[in-house]
Each structure stands twice: as C-alpha cells, then as structure tokens.
Amino acid sequence: MIQLRNIRKTYQTGYNRLEVLKGIDLEIEAGAFASIMGSSGSGKSTLLNIIGMLDDYDHGDYHLDGTLIKGLSQADAAHYRNRFIGFVFQSFNLLPFKTAQENVALPLYYQKIDRLKRQKMAMEYLDMVGLADWASHLPTQLSGGQQQRVAIARALITQPKVILADEPTGALDTHTSYEVMELFKKVNQEGITVLIVTHEKDISDMTRRIIRLRDGLIENPAEGGVAVQPSV
Amino acid sequence: MFNSDTWQEIFHSIRRHKLRTILTALGVFWGIFMLVILLGAGRGLQNGVEYEFRDEAINTVWVSRGTTSLPFNGLPKGRRIRFTNDDYNLLADQFDQIEYLTGRYYLSGDKIVSYGRKNLSYSIRAVHPDCRFIENTMLQQGRYLNSKDIAECRKAAVIGDIVRKDLFGDGPAIGQEIRIGDISYQVVGTFTDEGGDNEMRMIYIPISTAQKVYAGADDVHQLMFATYDMPLEEIQAMQDEVRNAFARRHQFDPEDRKALYVFGTAEDHQKFNSLFASIRAFVWFVGMGSILSGVIGVSNIMLIIVKDRTREIGIRKALGATPVSIVSMILQEAVLITSLAGYLGLVAGIGALYLLESVSVQYFRNPQANLGMVLTAMLVLVAAGTLAGLWPARQAARINPIEAMRGS
Q: What pLDDT shows up at residue A230?
C-alpha cells in the first residue's frame, strides 16, 4: 500500500541546512496496523506529512497504492488526500462552529456529494463510533475521547485506504486512549491500513508492527517486514 | 463554484461568526450610509438656495442712485445723482440686450389704502409694465398695467392677493375703486407671487401716474432691467457700459463706485454657483475620505479574518480542500457580506434623506443622492474587500495544513 524508497528531506532554516530524513526505505502492506515511534526530532512528523501528501520530498520515490506520488500540484494532492487518506490528529482538529455531524460530513463536501446524502452518511459513521446521540453537539460540548471518535468518524467517511494518525492519544487519559485504540483496531479489521505516530510505548505495543525512527533513519530495517504481536 | 451548496456553507459560516460578520459589515455600511447622507445634503442645500431665488429673473440688473465721492470735471464731490424719465429712455434706446425694462418710483412710506370703511396700510410700487416679468408676478384676475396706463397716466392699480383678501374678502375686486392716500384708483388686476407674503402685500400703479400725482416731476428712483439670456461676462461688460453711459450723462467719474450702483443677480448666481462648486468639492473630499476609511477598515478586517481562519483552512486542506476552493470560500463570503452591508447602508441612507426631507428648513430642500455615484462607491468597497482578502487568503491556502493546525 505504501512504498518508500530512499526518501530524503532537508529543511533550510536561515543558514542551517537540516537533513530530517536521510534515506527512508519502508514498505507497509495493505491492511497493516503499524506504528511509527521515535523521539521528537527523529523525523516522524515529517515522514507522516510526506505519506499524507501534506509535504513534498527532495529525493527518492513514494508509491501509494501503486501510484507514484511526486511533485503533485496542490490541487492534485488535495484530491488524493481526500480519496485515499483519513487524518486523525492529536488535537482532534474539529471545526468548532460545526456540530459533530457536520464535522463528520465535511470531507464529503469536497467530493461534491449532495447535502442530504452527506448528512445521512455522517449519521451512519457517528453511529459506528457510538456517538449517534451526540450528532447535534458542538465539539466544545464533547469530551476529549468523544471528540477524537468524531475525528475518526470524519477520517473514515471517505472510505480511505489509509488512516494516518498523528499522536491520536496524546491528549487523552489512559482509559480513553485504550478505547480509541480499540476503535482503530476495529477499523483495521475492516481492511483499512492504519498508521499511527506515537511516542507512547503502550500505544505502539497495541499495533502489529512497530517502526522505530531515529535521526532520520529507520532503526530496525531488519525487522521491516516482521509483524510484532500485539500485547493485548 | 456558485452552487447552492457553497452558499449554504457560507451562510452557515456567517451565522456562526456573527461578531466577525458585523465588524466587516459595519465599515462598509457606515461608509455608504455617510456617503449617501453627504451627497444628499449637498444636493439639498443647492436645491434650497435655488428655491429661495426662484421668484426673480436670473439676469436682472438694478441701477440705483448714489452720491459722488470723487470730484469730476471741476464738479465737487458729494453731488446726489437723480434719475428721470430720460434715464429710462437712455436704457431703452441704447441697449438692445435689454429684454424687459422698468423704472421705479417709491411712494414715501406705506400709504393708507381705503375701500368702503376699511383703512389699511400697504407698500406701493410705481412701475412700468415690464416690471411684471422682472418680478415674476403671476396674474390672477384682470390684467397687469399696460402702456396705455403709462401714456394716459391712468389711475389703475394691480393689487396683491393679500390686499385683495383684506379689502374685498370674497367679493369682486376688478373694477372696484380704492383710495391710495387721497387719490382714487380703479383695481384692474390681482396677482400672486412666489416671493412670499410681503410681495403679495404690494400694490403696483403706473409710474407716470405716481410721478404726476406725488412728485410733480418726472423723477425715477430706481431702474431695473432683465437682459436676454447671455453669459455672465457679457452681462458684466454690459453693466460697465451702462455705468459709463450714466457717467457721461450725469457727469461723474466712471470709477466712482458710490455715484451709481449697478448690481446684477447674475453675479449672485455666479457666486452661488462657485459656492456650490466648493460644497461639491468638499462633499467629494469627505466622501472619498469615508470611502477610503471604509476600504482600510474592510481590508483590515479581512486580514484578521484570514488569520483567524488559519486553523480552519488547515483542517479543510487536510480533508481535501484545494487551494482554489479555500480562496473562493473566503472571497465569496467577503463579497456577500460587503455587498449586503453596502446595500443596507444605501437603504438606510436614503431612508435618512426621506426623514431630512420632511424637516422644513430655509435653504434646504429635496435632498437626493446620486445613485450612480453611490453604486460606484459600493463597488469600490466590495472590490477593495475582495482584493484585500485575496492576498492573505492565497497565503493561507498555501501553508502546510500541519503547521496551520498546530499554530494557534
């Protein structure tokens, strides 16, 4: 599903050149449930941005579902993002002035799906994450866990091939974190590839594969294709 | 880009951000509102002044007697100039540009006018028939004075409408005998005048009769004439010629401004016209100022709005919004709000002008704003808001969604 070959990325800040990714080789098969671990500055966010087509890379090749993703225009990147990838963020990133249902329906707006159908589908996905009763609530009226579940429903509504989650449990307590991880597991069981960036060991331990990143390189290329058994 | 779904998204955004919307709208609303008021008030002032002067022919010139203040040809200063019928004839014979000409003889003080047992006091003007056109006197019944009245020194009187009501009430006036002082006159006509009540408390009699009865000579107190329609420069040149002709006839220095007073309303009109020009310039200046401050206000609020929406833009981008859809979302919202606010400002301004119209003040009438000008101003404000939003919106659409969502 995701194939990265010798990906390099350098940031220029003032007089300093900072090489963040120094040649990443990584293959994530369809239906994987994987996590990327690494301390801050290891390049894991940059890697996630590149996989999510939010940022370009300098060198190498990136194939998503067999399509080469390189030098895309902003509009093309937006199109691929909308069709292939669902994002989940640490800070939920729901639009504060829209209800849960409207938030979930928003990606379909950019697919030009009509309003009634959008709302119906949004209800279905909210029901799936167990928040059907909260459809008309604004994000501020929901708990952190509930907000993250709304965000997950929003990521799923376009039926993406890959869910990219950036520290999805970073703002949640342990109990809620585990609930959210259960939800990801359920999503994965339906065949969607799930890739989670985290620095929490207990979270990554729940995935089937852990990719460790240090100083812009993958630390455990040897076990690149080896699945780690989840601890739960 | 202009489908109903987009608009629903925009209306939703407007409903949920009332403060932001009101702040944007207020600048445009106020700018347009003030502009309408200003233009209307300027226009109202002009209409008012024109209205005040409507009862006089535009090209009227008064020639009045004075006292010499300079010695001339061995004659001492301090001589009083006197007009006679010869002066009237001089103007009538030598100046073809004159359309209407009248001499005036003022009876000293108000005269007691009596009819039956009624004794009332009115002003009397002894004039030539042309006076009717110079004063814009509007005949109601009967006739005005004519040349036969002058030639035969008839004791004929044309009375104002108020005089008629005072003396005759609802009864017939034409043909009745009234007494002015000790002399009996026949009423030949009645008139109204837009110049106000004072003009309608007036009685006109033939100047020749007055000269014979009250002066015993052919004295004329004042001469008035109206020229054919001609430019101010020509009228002024003609006034100078009149002055020179009188100077030759009465032996005074043409430069002696106190010997003879020649005063034209055209000059007044010119003065008013230049006053209006300055008022218009002032209105423009202030109007441009209010538009400019509107432009700055709208631009400012657009910058703030885009800044405020950075996070939202990042989220939308992550969910698949293209840069074009982001820019157009922000701009369509701005255009909608500014045009709507401009329209409301226009309606409120015109409403305020209606209220002003009902207020009756001298020199202020019928305020109107030039709609084309206001619509142009509105267009400028909407365009300014759009342009001011365009640059930051494009910047915002270009930024990395991750950065946009983290920063804030």
A: 46
| A109 to B5: CB separation less than 8 angstroms, yes or no | yes
Every domain of chain A and the residues it spans: 32-55+82-228
CA B203/CA B160 separation, integer angstroms: 6
What is the pairing mode between strands B111-115 and B177-180?
antiparallel
Residue type at A153? A
Q: Per the CB < 8 Å rule, is B319 touching A107?
A: yes
Length of chain A: 232
Q: How far is Cα A86 from Cα B343, in angstroms, rounded to an integer?
A: 43
- Name residues whose C-beta falls within 8 Å of residue B397's C-beta, 6 or more positions apart in sequence: A74, B313, B317, B323, B324, B326, B327
Q: Residue A110 is nearest to which of B312, B321, B323, comparing CB atoms? A: B321
CA-angle at B405, arms to B402 and B407, nearest 5°: 100
CA–CA separation, A225 vs A12, rounded Å?
A: 33
**Following DSSP, what letter does each residue of A149-166 receive, concatenated?**
HHHHHHHHTT--SEEEEE
Confidence of residue B146 (pLDDT cuts 50, 70, 90): very high
**φ/ψ (deg, to 5) at A84:** -105, -30
CATH fold for domain A32-55+82-228: Rossmann fold (3.40.50)
Q: Write down the pLDDT at residue B157.
A: 94
In the prediction, which pLDDT does B58 show? 64
Q: Which residue has the higher pLDDT, B407 or B354?
A: B354
**Cα distances (Å, whole numbers) of residue B204 to B152, B159, B186:** 16, 6, 12
Which of A147-156, A206-215, B368-377 is least confident?
B368-377
Kindly state whether A220 is in contact with chain B, defined as any CB-CB distance less than 8 angstroms. Answer: no
**Rounded to an integer, what distance in angstroms lies between the CA atom of residue A78 and that of residue B321?**
6
CB A133 within 8 A of CB A160: no
